[in-house]
């Protein structure tokens, strides 16, 4: 049976091999592609083992195989998105050259639907259109493109339905999948990667979605690669070529129509009335190793069946043809010919405005972002206001004022951490959109900052006023204005701190713990629990004291409250009255040589510093990841060369 392998594949491929250089579109080839990860004992475990293949304009390639066989890894490797802990070896060429796939050239639809759950389908796609499509397109053109794409994906009936999340039931899983696809095909990219585009869709929806994607591919000679789990026979037939993997090895690469013949000739004919793709997957799934029925009533173990098929493919004429085609593409395609379809994206100002608006709407609709916090602040301020009600101006009120202000600086600002889960969700969306090049890091930071200002102002003013006037802190609107402004500055600072944490620690539970820990240290260093002069002095006071924003916030709040007031002095032997300035220097050991406005300016300066730092971290990570991967690939290559010698 094995002798007949070559002849079984001959003639089954309908790949182009002549006149490639005259063709437009994207030719993607990969040759001897290996991807490895570190295993538990310090060695390297291969995920992809020497894969070779190609995909051409107008074609849709299906990557299939059992769960964990490396489908997503192959997609990620081809799209240049592998994790930094993986190492890649082999050659991936775009139109015959080592080109970076940029915005407008390629798009990637991830397996998880990371969408803004508070938006409707129309809003999600339209905001995305505004971000991705160039400023040269009018608003109405962008709207039209968004609506046409929604229609293409069969979502017109759900157009005004919210995507839905933990608090609101919205779209079904399959509809969310289609929204994700809509967003990525808005720019009509020349190369499209789809990770499980039909997961969660029923067979009719899968068919319609895939046939629309295939139409898109053929319309403008787009190149499409999709990993797919369990296509129905109708969907399977839509694909032009199939890359069948098992444990990172190629079992079959060639036209979908010839796969049946390949399996039959190797002794695994597809039984009548069975979906061919189900048959292939069952034949090569070794997770539940069972005997596979071979032709003529014979049975073989799955492992043996896979080895046989892999070896058979390697020695087949089909494999030679694929290699030949990969070489032809490399030699004939003009390296510089990567066309960019929508390479022009919206400008910085448009991105900032759209992101501000989108984020503002999301914050308004997501109760977990600010509204819950607003309610808690109201309750807290009512509590603080009643506990410290009408604080008076006797000697005992000095300590009480200090305590209540410290509570405001530490706990009330600490609570800003509560919005972190919602913020982490927004960061996930940012990461997906950023990976696909929809907009820049700076636009995101500006958008997030501007959209949060109205909510933070509201929280500082309304509950703040309730607490301020119930307690009876220093009279005068300018004093209250300073109090509210400093509270606002502290809250936006904590949010900026959490932005840094989220850039470095994307998991929100870990993020909350990290953020809470950092704030705990800062509170301790703020100069209240241990007065400034009593702090240890390794070099110049305790360094944490200067880094902690609580120091400046405390100073600002205290100066605002105490300066201008006079209290009776009950200390034996002292004068009968004590001024606010004396309290600041003697009791609280604060530096009064500069004004409270300097303190607030320092806090606002820290806000800017923190936001710039998060920009730097995100940018740095983006730059660092490819560098690390490049270095690792180089060292892996050197090691292999040495081993070969
Ligand atoms: N960055 C990584 N670090 C460690 N292991 C990884 C990494 N990426 C992938 N793997 C492992 O490689 C194997 C293949 O993973 P991959 O996600 O590519 O499979 P898949 O075929 O897409 O699976 P599924 O169909 O279930 O999504 C899995 O065992 C996975 O755990």
TrEMBL record:
Claim: Transmembrane helix is one of the keywords in the record: yes
Topology class, membrane: Multi-pass membrane protein
An example molecular function term from Gene Ontology annotations: ATP hydrolysis activity
Keyword Nucleotide-binding: yes
Pfam families tied to this protein: ABC2_membrane (PF01061), ABC2_membrane_7 (PF19055), ABC_tran (PF00005)
Primary residence: membrane
Residue intervals of the ABC transporter domain: 28-272
Compartments in which it is found: Membrane
GO CC, any one term: membrane
Transmembrane parts of this sequence: 370-392, 404-424, 445-471, 477-501, 508-529, 597-618
Protein origin, superkingdom: Eukaryota
Record's keyword terms, sorted: ATP-binding, Membrane, Nucleotide-binding, Transmembrane, Transmembrane helix, Transport
Coiled coil: none
Family: Belongs to the ABC transporter superfamily. ABCG family. Eye pigment precursor importer (TC 3.A.1.204) subfamily.
UniProt protein name: ABC transporter domain-containing protein
Source organism of this protein record: Fraxinus pennsylvanica
């Amino acid at each position: 049976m094995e002798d007949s392998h070559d002849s079984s594949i001959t003639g089954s491929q309908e790949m182009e091999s002549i006149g490639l250089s005259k063709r437009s579109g994207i030719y993607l080839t990969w040759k001897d592609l290996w991807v490895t990860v570190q295993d538990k004992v310090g060695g390297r475990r291969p995920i992809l083992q020497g894969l070779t293949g190609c995909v051409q304009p107008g074609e849709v390639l299906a990557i299939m195989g059992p769960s964990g066989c490396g489908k997503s890894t192959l997609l990620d490797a081809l799209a240049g998105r592998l994790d930094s802990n993986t190492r890649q070896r082999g050659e991936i060429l775009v139109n015959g050259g080592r080109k970076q796939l940029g915005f407008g050239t390629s798009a990637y639809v991830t397996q998880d639907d990371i969408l803004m759950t508070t938006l409707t389908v129309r809003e999600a796609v339209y905001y995305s259109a505004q971000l991705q499509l160039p400023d040269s397109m009018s608003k109405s053109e962008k709207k039209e493109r968004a609506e046409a794409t929604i229609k293409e994906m069969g979502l017109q009936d759900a157009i005004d339905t919210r995507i839905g999340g933990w608090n609101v039931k919205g779209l079904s899983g399959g509809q969310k999948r289609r929204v994700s696809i809509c967003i990525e095909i808005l720019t009509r990219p020349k190369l499209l990667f789809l990770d499980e585009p039909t997961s969660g869709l029923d067979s009719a929806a899968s068919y319609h979605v895939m046939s629309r994607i295939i139409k898109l591919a053929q319309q403008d000679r787009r190149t499409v690669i999709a990993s797919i789990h369990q296509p129905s026979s109708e969907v399977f037939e839509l694909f032009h070529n199939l890359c069948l993997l098992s444990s990172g090895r190629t079992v079959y690469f060639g036209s979908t129509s010839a796969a049946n013949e390949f399996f039959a000739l190797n002794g695994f004919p597809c039984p009548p009335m069975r979906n061919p793709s189900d048959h292939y997957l069952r034949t090569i799934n070794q997770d539940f190793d069972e005997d596979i029925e071979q032709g003529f009533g014979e049975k073989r173990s799955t492992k043996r069946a896979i080895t046989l098929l892999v070896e058979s493919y390697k020695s087949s004429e089909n494999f030679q043809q694929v290699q030949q085609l990969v070489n032809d593409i490399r030699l004939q395609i003009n390296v510089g010919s990567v066309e960019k379809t929508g390479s022009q994206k919206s400008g910085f100002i448009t991105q900032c405005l759209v992101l501000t608006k989108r984020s503002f709407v999301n914050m308004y609709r997501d109760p977990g972002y600010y509204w819950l916090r607003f309610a808690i602040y109201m309750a807290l301020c009512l509590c603080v206001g009643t506990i410290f009600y009408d604080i008076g101006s006797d000697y005992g009120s000095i300590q009480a004022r200090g305590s209540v202000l410290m509570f405001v600086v530490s706990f009330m600002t600490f609570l800003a951490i509560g919005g972190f889960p919602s913020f982490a969700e927004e960061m996930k969306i940012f990461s997906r959109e950023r990976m696909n090049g929809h907009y820049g890091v700076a636009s995101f930071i500006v958008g997030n900052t501007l959209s949060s200002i109205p909510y933070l102002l509201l929280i500082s003013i309304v509950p703040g006023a309730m607490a301020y006037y119930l307690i009876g802190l220093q009279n005068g609107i300018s004093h209250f204005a300073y109090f509210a402004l400093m509270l606002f500055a502290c809250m936006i600072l904590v949010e900026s701190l959490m932005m840094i944490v989220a850039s470095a620690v994307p998991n929100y539970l870990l993020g909350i713990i990290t953020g809470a820990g950092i704030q705990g240290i800062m509170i301790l260093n703020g100069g209240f629990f241990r007065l400034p002069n009593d702090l240890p002095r390794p070099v110049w006071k305790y360094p944490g004291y200067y880094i902690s924003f609580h120091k400046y916030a405390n100073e600002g709040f205290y100066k605002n409250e105490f300066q201008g007031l006079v209290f009776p002095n009950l200390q034996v032997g002292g004068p009968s009255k004590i001024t606010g300035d004396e309290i600041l220097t003697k009791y609280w050991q604060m530096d009064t040589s500069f004004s409270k406005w300097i303190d607030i300016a320092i806090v606002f300066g820290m806000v800017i510093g923190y936001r710039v730092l998060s920009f730097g971290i995100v940018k740095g990570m983006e730059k660092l990841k490819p560098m690390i991967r490049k270095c690792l690939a180089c060292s892996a290559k050197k090691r292999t060369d040495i081993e070969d010698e």
